[in-house]
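writing this on my phone so excuse typos. first protein, seq and then structure
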Amino acid sequence: MAKFLEIHPVDPQARLIQQAVDIINDGGVIAYPTDSSYALGCHIGDKHAMERIRRIRRVDDKHNFTLVCRDLTDIATYAKVDNSTYRMLKSLTPGPYTFILKATHEVPRRLQNPKRKTIGIRVPDNRIAQSLLDALGQPLMSSTLILPGEDMPLNDPVDIDEAIGKQLDLIIDGGPCQLEPTTVLAFTDDAVEVVRHGAGDTAFLN
């Protein structure tokens, strides 16, 4: 049964954030709020925890995991970006976007798309997520909390607890999130493709 932490959405309690970080570092799988919907997260280096997220979502090894980052400071460690791409990412972060980029050699193969060798990068505009990432000191391996057979993500921690609480180690209750997932933008060969329309506006691409 998952631990349930009520964390203030505007002024997250440092003590509770540290409890969440301890659970992540101990191999736990958590559900946490973002600026789009709730997401599942675990330690970037924990293969077992990643497999647990795959089982919860019932996705195969081609599923794109996302590295949720505090900001773009370390982006060159995980993704290959030129100056123009970086400027676009900077203008859209923090915000409800996931960027699919070519992965560097620092990204474990199990996190990359097996064919395209890409990785998702995300910088959420959410105080709880930001505080969590700040205390963790590294990106969080993450996946939108969309259950098998569903089109939309879960956005209420009580519903999450009822649906998959037994499969999680922690649910962070930061209040309801939006119902929309992130907008996914893929950067390939000097072009930007909208892979999924979501909470982030794409009018700037027209």
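second protein below, same order as before
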Amino acid sequence: MINRAVLVLNQNYEPLNICRARRALVLVHTGKAEMLENGTGFVRSANAIFSIPSVIRLDYMIKRPRNFGTKKLSRYEIFSRDHNTCQYCGKQSHQLTLDHVMPRFRGGEHTWENVVSACIPCNRRKAGRTPAEAGMKLAHRPCAPHNNGGFHIPHNYLEAKQEWQKYLPRMN
């Protein structure tokens, strides 16, 4: 319960971050934030019972730069971009590997446009070949994620946390 995700909003209700319920409880009970949405469950101490928040709003404004640049290329970001789905067979899993569409030893670069998520059997089947040489087709052409200067919420939270929807900007 104490490790549940909590949406943190800036003073102006702009999504700022996602933190754990433990951190959110500390912010609320030290007077640095207010609870907007009650989560499911309670935490008991020796003297009191505390509601676990789902959405909190900070009592002070955090200034954020508007020019974020491009996102860092990492395993987590690739899997998030591809929705934890193998780009060859379409199997959704949390046991994925990174695959270079054009193998690195053949001149392929480690860039957003050349790296996709793949399940282990598909990655082994493709081996050091291109998808065309291996007779495999990509589900989506890899590209850098769109960076609209806003806060990025991983897709698994968007589906699971319905109470967050009214605080998030509409995605088109």
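Residues 29 and 46 are 15 Å apart (CA to CA). thats all i got for now
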